[in-house]
Amino acid sequence: MKATTLALFTTLIVVNSLFCQQQIQNPGFEEWEDAGTVVDEPTNWSSIKTSDDIFYNNLAPVVWEQSNDAHSGAYSLGLFNVGSLVIATGMITNGRVHTQLPADSSYVFTDLYDERWHSTLTERPDSVAGWFKCNPSGSDFGTVKFLLHTGYAQLPGDETNHIAMAYYELPSEEITQWTRFSAPFIYSSNNNPEYYLSVLTSGNGTQAVIGSTALFDDLEFIYNENSVAELSENQFKVRIVNNNLDFIIESNNNELYEFKLIDVNGRIILTKQINAGENNSINISEFQSGLYIVIAVNPRKTFTKKVLIN
């Protein structure tokens, strides 16, 4: 009887710990609120119309919507690019927007002093996952960025308080069925984070194209010892030798991938078309020192690794 009781007690502890793992706030975009904007914002998320500059808030267009096309539940988040001479990228963040002209000087940040614009996270998730649809214009693409950090942080910004980054690019082609994405967190510190800062977009930042749209739903942090990066570890080989970044996707299928070198703020530093099974090398002697994320992606697979350039 005691053994049975102990086993049951242990099981309850394990189950309870699984359910207590910290998660994204309002991850399915089921809750919406009047934030003083033209249309409601999803609760615990904010837009370019609730930035820290009232003047720009009045001028900023609406670039989001509450969509009835949902992966689950009643609603999803719809984002869309609008504009004429200046393109406003569809975007939402759990932090707050700092709007500034020119547009590439703007950023999102964790406001430590207002609970409306910061989200606590003290655990170390393995990855972030969710569901999307998209319809990009031209070669445009939406993005998902999640930064785990301590203290104050912004995107883009310096790396001082960074703990980990997850980054995912939506395809540059129309996806009409709900499709799951998963992006591993690339950890640059052994410390635990205090907050997470996220940005979802329907276009490629200041390079976005008018008319691109994206839907997002059912986001979640994944806590799994079997990391989604295992596939990258086994097949995607990356190393630095004599100021060269050498890499290969070990496969015989000869698939075409787009290789990208990205800094920890999500800025694309370099792109290159590569084929699986072929050795590749890039001279990095002129690159700034720091942590970078390397990604090889095609419509079916994404490989992700981190590299430290000294």
Explained architecture:
- It is a single chain.
- The chain is mainly β and 310 residues long.
- It folds into two domains: 23-222, Jelly Rolls, CATH 2.60.120; 230-309, Immunoglobulin-like, CATH 2.60.40.3080.
- The chain is built from three helices and 25 strands.
- The strands form seven sheets. Strands 7, 10, 12, 14, 16 and 17 form a six-stranded antiparallel beta sheet that branches.
- A hairpin with an 8-residue loop joins strand 8 and strand 9.
- The N and C termini lie far apart (60 Å).
- Mean pLDDT is 84; it is low at 1-19 and 225-232.
Quickly give the structural class.
mainly beta
Radius of gyration: 20 Å
- Low-confidence segments, given as residue ranges, are 1-19, 225-232
- Identify the overall geometry: globular
- N-end to C-end Cα span: 60 Å
What is the helix/strand order?
HEEHEEEEEEEEEEEEEEEEHEEEEEEE
How many domains, as an integer? 2
By CATH, the superfamily of the largest domain comes out as Galactose-binding domain-like
Individual helix count: 3
Strand content: 35-45%
Sheet of most strands: 6 strands, antiparallel
* Oligomeric organization of the protein chains: single chain
The top level CATH class name of the largest domain: Mainly Beta
CATH architecture of the largest domain: Sandwich
Mean pLDDT: 84
Total strand count, please? Answer: 25
